[in-house]
Specification:
Layout: H1 23-48, H2 59-62, H3 67-88, H4 92-124, H5 132-163, H6 172-199
Helix pairs in contact: 1-5, 1-6, 3-4, 3-6, 4-5, 5-6
């Protein structure tokens, strides 16, 4: 008696079931798209009004490159990425360290921004009502600084939860959602830096 055996092609593999993407990540991406549109409006307005101030002070007279603040803010993208990666490996200590570094770097950036504004207002009398440059400068840079404050606040809350032992590996996706917002804030600063401190001067 001959036996017949059915053979399954080697390349025929069972595909994993399709699942919906994370609601948190999708929601954050939608928020980032909306925020990008707002920033785009402010950036275009700043570019449009470059050189149209009828009175001083002008950007070239008062603006210095914010090197320290820029280095700190861009470096914080690496620390928050480290925090997420560490949490995915259940390395709570590494996650806490990454969050602490991110909060510290973000705080330093805000302090350099506050120092710059004090210098512009106190030493040069540049306020949001001084001229077109003052109006567009404080609007654009202030909008970004507001987003940094929000990000630092949320990261500080995450750090506090991590220090209290409430952050676990299962929360890695939530921390990743927060990190996306922070990466967005860092990316926007690159645009603001180039438009305000390089092109605008």
């Amino acid at each position: 008696m001959m036996q017949t055996t059915s053979t399954i092609p080697i390349d025929a593999q069972v595909e994993p079931p399709w699942k919906l993407p994370s609601r948190g990540i999708v929601g954050m991406m939608c928020l980032i798209l909306a925020e990008s549109a707002i920033f785009l409006i402010f950036v275009v307005a700043y570019i449009y009004y470059i050189g149209k101030s009828l009175s001083g002070p002008l950007p070239a007279q008062v603006l210095d490159l914010p090197i320290l603040g820029t280095i700190c803010l861009l470096s914080s993208s690496f620390t928050v990425h480290h925090a997420v990666s560490a949490l995915r490996k259940n390395n709570i200590g590494g996650c806490t360290l990454g969050l602490a570094g991110t909060v510290l770097l973000g705080a330093i950036f805000l302090m350099t921004t506050a120092r710059e504004w004090y210098h512009l207002i106190h030493d040069f009398g540049l306020t949001i009502r001084t001229n077109l440059f003052g109006t567009t400068f404080y609007s654009l840079v202030g909008l970004h600084a507001t987003h940094v404050v929000i990000g630092v606040t949320m990261l500080t809350a995450a750090l506090a939860l991590s220090l209290s032992g409430r952050v676990k590996e299962k929360h890695a996706e939530r921390l990743e959602v927060l990190s996306l917002y922070w990466h967005f804030v860092d990316g926007v600063w690159v645009v603001v830096f180039l438009v305000v401190y390089v092109l605008g001067r």
